[in-house]
Amino acid sequence: METSRTLREPPIRGGCDLLVVAISSRALFDLGESHELFERDGVEAFARYQIEREDELLAPGIAFPLVQKLLALNRAAPEAPRVEVILLSRNSADTGLRIFNSIEHYGLDISRAVFTRGAPTSPYVHAFGAHLFLSANPDSVAQALAAGIAAATILPSKAPQRQSEQLRIAFDGDAVLFGDESETIHEQGGIDAFHRNETERARESLSGGPFRGFLDALHHLQAAFPSESGPIRTALVTARSAPAHKRVILTLREWGVRIDEALFLGGRPKGPFLEAFGADIFFDDSAVNVESARQHVATGHVPRRIAAAEGG
Predict the structure, then answer these.
(1) Is 48 helix (H, G, I), strand (E, B) or coil?
(2) For residue 161, is it within any domain?
């Protein structure tokens, strides 16, 4: 039996002066070769592999630039809310030494970590009060989403050609920032039913989706910097178009959150627009949109529905 995660509002987690991001070791570093060994030969073979290469640095992974920019915010304004990145790994503490050696080499201010030796890491996402969880493991992501935490599966992606010193984060609307009720109407009744529903309910706020709490925390961090020259820039990149744009704008206004750019693309492929924005990461629930996006920028897939009995 499937249940929509938007049946309840996602909680706003953590303290108001701390943005907490939990990330798996495979999202932070390139562990593709050793992970294949883990899947093929098991924990012991994986442990031997990592210990033998303990002094070899790991190459940066897909989410590495994002983490660098997140941590750099702590140096941008000492009086601003802090950002903390937590490492979650299915390595053992012993084999995790290679990961910490790499963290130290790259100068990443990451001090808290969990090593589970093959067990799921998702229970610790909630324990740390994380606002966001990024992982290469879809099952871990599904479990975090079921617990009401913003989470996404980091996919193999291409770095954007346009680089910015700002931290740039882009979100899809329905089923990510907002609930999935309108998207369900679109799927069941088509585009005409969708537009009719959005026009009739234009003044009625959309419900919050799984990433609303993360957006709130990010907005709180943004508010500590000048709006014209701050180090964070956000974008809503949605397949909606007029007249369905009005409900989105009024919802964000009622929430009191800031979105710097809003792109209403009316079904156009999102990838080129995300590259033009220079997104450090983009979050979307649609497989089609995710495939377009990851050809241009780092992309996180937010699975839309969670199978309650299986946790993902």
Answers:
(1) helix
(2) no
Q: Calculate the average pLDDT of the chain.
A: 86
Tell me which of 41, 55, 139, 172 is the catalytic residue. Answer: 172
Q: 280 an active-site residue? A: no
Per the DSSP assignment, residues forming a β-bridge with 178 are 174, 208
pLDDT at 188: 86
| Tens-digit pLDDT profile for residues 278-302 | 999 999 999 999 999 999 999 999 9
Dihedral (C-alpha) 164, 167, 170, 176: value to the nearest 10 degrees?
170
Res 117: pLDDT: 83
Q: What is the pTM of this model?
A: 0.88
- Is there a single domain that holds both residue 145 and residue 246? no
> Three-state SS for 47?
helix
Q: Which residues partner with 284 through β-bridges?
A: 301
Q: Considering the domain boundaries, does residue 160 fall inside one?
A: no
Residue 218's CATH number = 3.40.50.1000
Domain of residue 125: give its range.
2-155
